[in-house]
Amino acid sequence: MILKPPPLAAALLLAAVCVPAALCIGLMAGSSGWGWPQGDILWLIRLPRVLSAFGTGAGLALAGALIQLVTRNPLADPYVLGVSSGASVGALLALMLLPAGLFLAPEVGAVLGALAATSLAFLFTWRAMGNSAGRIANQPGTVVVLLVGVMIGAACGAAVSFMLAVANDQQLRSLVFWLLGDLNGASLWWPLWAAVGLALLLAWPRARELDWLTRGDAWAWTLGVPVAQRRRLAILAACIATGAAVATAGSIGFVGLVAPHIVRLVGLRHARALLPFSAVFGGVFLVLADTVARTLIAPAQLPVGVVSAAVGVPLFLFLLLRRSQGR
Amino acid sequence: MSQQNIHLNASPLPLHLRELSLRAGGAGRLLVSGLSLSIEPGQRWALLGPNGAGKSTLLAAVAGLALPAGGELRIGERVLAQWPARELVRQRAWCPQFWLDPFPASSWETVACAVVATQPAVSAQRAEDVARDWLQRFDVGALADSDVRTLSGGERQRVALATACAQAAPLLLLDEPTAHLDWAHQVLLQPLLTAWSAAGGTVFAAVHDLNMAWSFATHALLLDGRGGFAAGTRDEILQAAPLSHAYAVPVSVLEEGDARWFRVDLSATGNGGNEQRKTGQ
Asked: What is the spatial distance between Cα A113 and Cα A156, in angstroms, rounded to a whole number?
């Protein structure tokens, strides 16, 4: 199969059109109909929500791209590290134990939970990611990283099930909504944007080395890549982005797995382009998905995860199958 | 093949092995011990020995990827472990037996990684030109824009060899460079390695085909898989006695003028040969 040069200029142009367009659509669509909102509705409700949606999608997509690179696993998503499960446990604990309606309680709980899960993941995988000289065999490191993440996720999943079992009916609704991924009330967009920006700033300068790393730790090391440091850096960046996204909007599935693949399928296959464009695509995608989620059955709202899967699965399959049929 | 223009990125340095011992996986079975030899610029060494004798382990140790169980490795005056990884990139290239290609990348992009790694300031266009040139030399120029994941084993191997050469480091460490290669492309390798050493470079290649080894090497290191080894010029090592000992099968040598041809002497492979193999393990 012939690979064309990455369509960088076209992608930049498309991003320059799509980002403002998606933001405008998100701002204009509301439960009361279509139109440019007035004053407070714009500044206090629509804009923070749209920016939160963009940041969440961007963070998850960036984390997904990073995790797929460092684990060499096209099926990996931000949640395989267990960060989101940790965040869920933190958020649910806050929702259950703290008085209802306490300002930012689930968000802070989620950040703490994500931090705890990240620390655990690093503790267990520190050695597996390669010793200090980076002199290591090829495969085991990535497998250990994945398995540790799966185990942390499983433990957290059990904790979440336990909390769901003991929660009362009032709590249950907010817990389930949080678990499904919910941008309702997500208004604190700037810490999220800062976290995603930080993650991109950490990883992007090393993008080329992350590309080399996918072809084998040993080979990358002979090209001068400090294997263990780069893998830890990428995982740290992914944890920051995932933690911030999950704390803002809960576990929204699908974006992190599929956004990097869609960006690759249009031909942006190098990490240097893949990381930023995954973030942009994820952001645009989630803004649009959230717009649908809050207008489709207005005034009620759908969890955005429902919409992102309903739109994203066919979109991804279409691109994948069209590509594999030779075009 | 047309004229070979080879520009090395660093001045060639000798490789010194002193009392080197290697173990499988760093601490397991003893592969070789007391290995001392010097590999000088301009030499082409064939690394021979039965499966599991430690050929790949030795190449990985020389590449700096694994610490030897004992002894010392030096490139030039400096002990290998004291070479900063980023300087080592310009000094040695390592072509492994196995590649992972989890994500799409074209052949030339794969080769260009090695160019960029050695010359971080190189322009994108220049890196691409160098990559395409090396692919051309290995007769995979037509596949330069193809996804490496769609190549055949032999085509992928030639991309790998092009990658190692594009690094332009004087010391070329090749782990089974002729694996998967058809005859025509095995033959292609020999003038290229000769040109490499003529440019001052050093070749250290693990091979299984003794005829191939004879055709490209000036020297040979023969591991017997039981801790022993024989090192010397091609003519000294590629003889019936040391080969039969190391491989534990009777190897016969046909001399034809200056050339030698090797084959396993099946007529002599009776019970004796089998028993010898068993005791060898």
From this structure: 10
Alpha carbon of A135: minimum distance to chain B alpha carbons (Å):
5
Contacts of A151 (CB under 8 A, 6+ apart): A82
What CATH number does the domain containing B44 carry?
A: 3.40.50.300
A112-147 confidence digits (pLDDT tens): 998 898 888 888 877 766 654 444 444 456 777 788
How much is the pTM? 0.89
Q: Does a structural domain hold residue B243?
A: no
A218 chain-B contacts, CB cut-off 8 A: 60, 65, 94, 96
Nearest to B77 by CA among B19, B15, B169, B21: B15
Do residues B264 and B128 both lie within one domain? Answer: no
A45 DSSP assignment: I
* Number of structural domains chain B divides into: 2
- Alpha-carbon distance of B276 to B155, in angstroms, equals 38
Bigger pLDDT: B20 or A102? B20
Residue B244 in any domain: the answer is no
- Residue A61: how many other CB atoms lie within 10 Å: 35
Q: Is B93 part of a structural domain of the chain?
A: yes
> A264 vs chain B: nearest CA distance in angstroms?
8
What is the Cα–Cα distance from B164 to B55, expressed in whole angstroms? 18
pLDDT tens track for B124-141: 999 999 999 999 999 999
Residue bearing tokens 């490795």 = B73
> Model confidence over A302-320: pLDDT tens digits?
888 888 888 888 887 887 7
Is A219 in Cβ contact with B99 (below 8 Å)?
A: yes
End-to-end CA distance of chain B: 43
Asked whether residue B9 falls in the same domain as residue B107, the answer is yes
How high does pLDDT run on average in chain B? Answer: 90
